[in-house]
Amino acid sequence: MNLFTYGSLMFPEIWKRIGVANCCSMPATLYGFARYRVIDTQFPGIVRAGSADLVRGRMYQDLNERTLARIDAYESDLYERLDVTVQLGDAKWVACQTYVIADSRRHILSDQTWDPTDFDATCFGF
Q: What is the pLDDT of residues 77-120, one digit of tens each?
C-alpha cells in the first residue's frame, strides 16, 4: 500500500518513535484538500477543499499491513484513512491512501494553515 503523508509522518523521528522503519518515500502533491492545524496541538489535519487547493507531502511506497496497523494506532480515531490519488514530482499520478479529518469532525481544526517548518519532531516523547 502507498501512503501519502502531509504532517508529522513526513519526519523520520516520528517513524522511529512509533516503531516503524523509515520507508522509501518521494515528494507528492494531493489536490482538492487543505491542511490546517488541529486546535491546541502542533499536528495538522486535512479536509476536502476546492479543486485549486493542494497539500504537499511525501508518498511512502509499498507499506505492509503490520506497518499500516502501527501507523493507524499512531493516528488515532481523529483521522480516517481514505483512498486518494497524488501527483509525483515527475507528473505521474499514483493511487494511495491518506489520513483525513472526517467532515463531522471539522470543528477540531483551526482556520490556521499548518506549515511543516513549524513542527518540531524532537519534542514528542511518546
A: 889 999 999 999 878 999 999 999 988 899 999 999 998 887 87
Looking up cell 518521494 gives: 26
Cell of 36: 490546517
Chain centroid, CA 85 distance in Å: 13
pTM: 0.91
CATH of the domain at 98: 3.10.490.10
Give the burial class of 32: count Cβ atoms within 10 A of its Cβ; 0-12 exposed, 13-18 middle, 19 or more buried.
middle
Range of the domain at 35: 3-113
Planar angle of CA 91, 51, 61, nearest 5 degrees: 40
